């Protein structure tokens, strides 16, 4: 086992140690080495005493400090990139269109099994402002129709191995469940607003029974009120 790390050896300066030793304050007496170089010398002396029982005098230099250090970096995986750990945070969800149909007030019918018939009022009686003795004319009759709703099938799938939830600590199963709910919410919006019918629901834009207002080049106040 090496006494010194690669980082310590890369910071070790042989020229600094030699310069401090040769800076003699008196003839024939070496000067004191400082810093990392002194710490390495003391570590070598302690190691020699522990393994051999003998004391070493003078300044000791690690032999590995004289060997050219290979370049270690994280850019290249074999040169050091494999030594860098990776910390995982919560998974960032994909950007997608926000689901809006439910928040706009769409009515939800739950626990349905078969087709659903919805009676619809298509025309209603008119109201009139009258003078004190004025008779009310025929206000017209209310008319009704029926819309039949049939089941549509929308599906999505996410495949997870048994090992992934067991080894993942970030709640990957809950994340996938939430992602599927958002996916189905987006599909529900598309069907409710622009669905083409047949396999899809018939969306509002493609439903001929839904009235429309043509604005033309410029939106006017009257058209905005009609809309």
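-> sequence recovered:
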């Amino acid at each position: 086992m090496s006494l010194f790390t690669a980082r310590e050896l890369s910071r070790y300066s042989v020229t600094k140690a030699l310069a401090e030793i040769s800076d003699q304050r008196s003839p024939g007496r070496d000067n004191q080495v400082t810093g990392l170089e002194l710490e390495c010398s003391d570590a070598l002396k302690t190691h020699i005493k522990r393994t051999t029982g003998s004391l070493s005098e003078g300044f000791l230099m690690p032999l590995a400090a004289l060997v050219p250090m290979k370049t270690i970096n994280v850019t290249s995986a074999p040169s050091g990139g494999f030594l860098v750990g990776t910390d995982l945070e919560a998974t960032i969800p994909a950007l997608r269109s926000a689901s809006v149909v439910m928040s706009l007030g769409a009515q939800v019918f739950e626990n349905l099994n078969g087709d659903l018939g919805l009676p619809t009022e298509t025309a209603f009686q008119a109201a009139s402002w009258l003078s004190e003795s004025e008779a009310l004319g025929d206000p017209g009759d209310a008319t009704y129709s029926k819309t039949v709703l049939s089941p549509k099938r929308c599906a999505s799938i996410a495949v997870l191995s048994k090992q992934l939830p067991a080894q993942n600590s970030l709640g990957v199963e809950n994340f996938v469940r939430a992602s599927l709910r958002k996916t189905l919410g987006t599909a529900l919006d598309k069907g409710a607003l622009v669905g083409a019918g047949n396999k899809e629901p018939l969306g509002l834009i493609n439903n001929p029974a839904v009235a429309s207002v043509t604005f033309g080049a410029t939106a006017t106040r009257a058209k905005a009120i009609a809309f």
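The radius of gyration is 41 Å.
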